[in-house]
Amino acid sequence: MHHTVYGVDIAKSVFQLHWVDQETGEVFSKQIKRAKFLEHFANRATCLIGMEACGGAQHWARRLSDMGHQVKLMAGKAVKAFVMGNKNDATDARAIWAAVQQPNVKAVAVKTESQQAVLALHRTRQQLVKFRTMQINGLRGLLTEYGEVMGLGRAALNKSLPEVLAKLAGRLPAALIDTLREQWAMVSHLDGRIAEIERRLQAWRKADPSCQRIAAIPGVGLLTATAAVATMGNAKAFQSGREFAAWLGLVPGQSGTGGKVRLLGISKRGDTYLRTLLIHGARSTLSRTKEPNEWLKGIRQRRPKNVVTVALANKMARTIWALLAHDRQYEGSFVSARAS
């Protein structure tokens, strides 16, 4: 059955649609207000609707799917190749319409509201951690102006700061000392907010079977488990563990011509946050593993430490996909084999 194909360029208030009538071949390019967008598709036969995976796309994909339409979200980089001429809403919608019909343009999985809620918690926590680091660095910088330099790390700062402020109180204005104390109190306040978000993530991990399943993998903790399940969406949207690892940017980039292919460093494509968590988890595993397996022993002998870390993160990503896609439990002694 041939469905009408739509290209939709979404925005804050105005959406641009592009489609071709299946019977007459007439080309339509129409601008629709946000409030009328769903109404346009309400009474139509099943359509294939393409959209860029940008802000708000997940919400509209869920609403359109509930109406019975087929929605394909695509990365903006994949759509950009089909943009012809000057960039505007109509051109973008036409490019999306062309891209959604290409079999080699991969779709971004549509996430549930629960999965997006978990990602929102992660983004909020990440922002608070950034604010906390800014507060601490600002506090250190201000104290350095008065000759007070403290040791590296949060523990050294916690130990030294009360004594430093008490010493400076005798020669600096009280207004400045009070301000520095307030800035230090803000750091403690941010600690509490970060801890509260982590408690909420912990509660979600305990209630979600997928998180519990992948949390058994060495190096996969609370943040990695919850972020992986929420970011991946539907694991079967990826054909293999290698495709999932490539989507995270954990495989080498390639540059080649004339039949010669040169492997580069890791591509660093995809989700930076999840890739960072996996690499940190791999680094922690390498430092704590007392009895490494044969694969880890072999690669440690052949490759530098950072290369080994990324290779282990790649393996962790593939393991996460395998457990979620095939609904299996983690087995440390499991050895995969090619199907005969």
Describe the protein's architecture and organization.
By secondary structure, the protein is of the alpha/beta class. The chain has 3 domains: about 5-100, Nucleotidyltransferase, domain 5 (2-Layer Sandwich); about 115-205, no CATH class; about 210-325, no CATH class. It is built from 13 helices and 7 strands. The strands form 2 sheets. Strands 3-2-1-4-5 form a 5-stranded mixed β-sheet. A two-stranded antiparallel sheet has the order 6-7. β1 and β2 form a beta hairpin. It is globular. The mean pLDDT is about 90.
Q: TL;DR of this structure?
A:
The protein has helices at residues 37-41, 57-66, 76-80, 89-100, 113-144, 154-168, 174-207, 209-214, 222-232, 241-247, 272-288, 294-302, 305-326; strands at residues 4-9, 14-20, 27-33, 47-52, 70-74, 252-257, 260-266. It is 54% helix and 13% strand. It has 3 domains: 4-100, Nucleotidyltransferase, domain 5; 113-207, no CATH class; 210-326, no CATH class.
Number of strand elements: 7
Report how far the terminal alpha carbons are from each other.
36 Å
Q: Ranges with pLDDT <50 over ≥5 residues?
A: none
Q: Calculate Rg over CA atoms.
A: 25 Å
Proportion of residues in extended strands: 5-15%
Strand count, sense and barrel status of the largest sheet are:
5 strands, mixed
**How many domains in all?**
3
Strand order of the largest sheet: 3-2-1-4-5
Compute the number of helices: 13
Shape: globular
Question: What share of the residues lie within helices?
Answer: 40-55%
- Mean pLDDT rating: 90
Element string (H = helix, E = strand): EEEHEHEHHHHHHHHEEHHH
**SS-based class:** alpha/beta
